[in-house]
Amino acid sequence: MVKEKVVLVNFWSSPFGSRVKIALEEKGIPYEYKEEDLFNKSSFLSTINPVHNKVPVLVHNQKPVCESLNILEYIDETWTDLSPRFLPSDPHQRALARFWADFIDKELYESSKKIYRGIGEEQVIGKNEVLRILKLVEGEIGDKPFFGGDNLGLVDITLIPFYSRFYTWETFGKFSIEEECPNLVAWAKRCLQKESVAKSLPDPIKIYEFILDLNKYFAK
Amino acid sequence: MGNESEIRLLGTAASPFVNRVQFALNLKSIKYEYTEEYLARKSELLLKSNPVHKKVPVLLHADKPPICESQIIIEYLDEIQPDLFQLLPSASLDRANCRFWAAYIDNKFFPLYEELRRTTKKAGQEAIKEQMIEATKLLEEAFVKSSNGKAYFGGDQVGYLDVVLGCFVRWIKHVDELNDFNTFDEVRVPELAKWAKNVSSHEALKSVTPGIETLVSFFGLLHIYKPPYQ
Predict the structure, then answer these.
(1) Separation of alpha carbons B115 and B99, rounded Å
(2) Considering CB atoms only, which of A77, A91, A99 is closest to B79?
(3) Start and end of every GST C-terminal domain (chain A) (predicted)?
(4) Angstrom distance (rounded) from CA B79 to CA B94
(5) Does a cis peptide bond (omega within 30 degrees of 0) precede residue B210?
């Protein structure tokens, strides 16, 4: 049996990197974790991700895979005998899961930045955009425990890392996500009961302090 | 599979994202009913089928929930019709490579053409053209690696990336002409230039590529709804 070598190159606060951590932990895939300093990027990062020079990158037997959703599908398609499968087997359900994951991936992070990096009108716009996204996604849970059904699926893993940022968004934007999206917060708390999620999500207060530091850094 | 009324595509003739889906449907010989949407006055069906983005293309298959986003539609088509003209490769690393470049094309490369269309100041236009030159350099390298000396990204046959990028060739040519630029320049990106000619003349794409009047008319609409930056 070939010894698989899996390395996750990441930065602790990245919600995109947390997705990959959760995925590896859920399937029980052994991996080495490499923290990359985003303020002093290594030459190693530019060799494994020459196009974007970003984290996360999964390096599997020396071959890099970049972009978090791409990595999630790669993990699901490579370790096919490890459950849970992140994508359902029915092509239609797969297309729907990919749609929601893509929607979250394309819009949530950018909109959320307006809340903590914008001022005045832009903050309000950001808050409204974020709430629109969260409410639309919340509507897809139904009465299942997770978007993936009984287990975490692609959409769960794509969205849950942002839970660490709820405190930051609520504090900057002066609103309560639990009040606006109670089912979503209930879902998030169910996710946190999973060990893979609990050990992969950064502490919300640390995130808040990090964002404050970043704002000071960018203000210079 | 093949009942004509089973698959319906909502689209607009000038949209490269719609052309992309049509290219895939044609390659896979999947019969479909096409409905042209007028984007200045979107139909109830479109708004109901894609409430999140309100955009084309949308694929309706029998009585199942609509499928939106062209790359997602194509993966779906590949999964329901895997035997006839497989678009994505089988190996997971090759699939990851395809998805990586597909994301680059949609998120980094094509948006440059919208930026250029909306940028009126000369300095801004030159800066965008520089980015286009950089991007095509990367795509040329990706093509050389992927094609392995053959005509397409997919090798001898059209594959996923040929469909993802091929649909943009006509649109890009139009923006190039309006801006005194040549994206697929034979000197700068010789392999990509050859590929652009090959893919545009592929029957499955040629048959759905919009003519100049359709493009000009659509660009006129865009000028109103997504006008140049002030």
Answers:
(1) 23
(2) A91
(3) 90-218
(4) 16
(5) no
Interior angle at CA B165, CA B60 and CA A157, nearest 5? 60
What is the predicted pLDDT for the residue at B40?
Answer: 87
Could you give the 3-state DSSP secondary structure of residue B190? helix
CB contact under 8 A, A77 and B95: yes
pLDDT digits (tens, 9 = 90+) for B32-68: 999 999 988 999 999 999 999 999 999 999 999 999 9
Contact B68, A96 (CB under 8 A): no
When CB atoms are compared, the residue of B52, B79, B138 closest to A51 is B138
Q: Which residues contact B29 (CB under 8 A, 6 or more apart)?
A: B2, B84, B85
**Structure-token match 């794409």, residue found:** B205
Is B67:A91 a contact under the CB 8 Å cutoff? no
What pairing do the DSSP bridges indicate for beta strands B67-68 and B58-61? antiparallel
Contact A95 B76 (CB under 8 A): yes
Count Cβ atoms below 10 Å from residue B53 Cβ, excluding itself. Answer: 13
| Helices and strands (H, E) in chain B, number of each type | 11, 4
What amino acid occupies position B199? Answer: V
Element spanning B9, H or E? strand B7-11
Could you give the angle at the alpha carbon of A135 between the alpha carbons of A134 and A139, nearest 5°? Answer: 115
Q: Which residues, listed in sequence order, are joined to residue A148 by a DSSP beta bridge?
A: none
Rounded Cα gap, residues B7 and B1, in angstroms: 10
ipTM for this prediction = 0.95
- Classified as helix, coil or strand, B124 is helix
The DSSP result for B72-111, as a single string, is HHHHHHHHHS-SSS--S-SSHHHHHHHHHHHHHIIIIITH
Residue A76 C-alpha, separation from nearest chain B C-alpha, in angstroms: 9
d(CA A35, CA A9): 6
- By residue count, chain A amounts to 220
Which residues 121-150 in chain A show a CB within 8 A of chain B?
136
pLDDT for position B2: 47
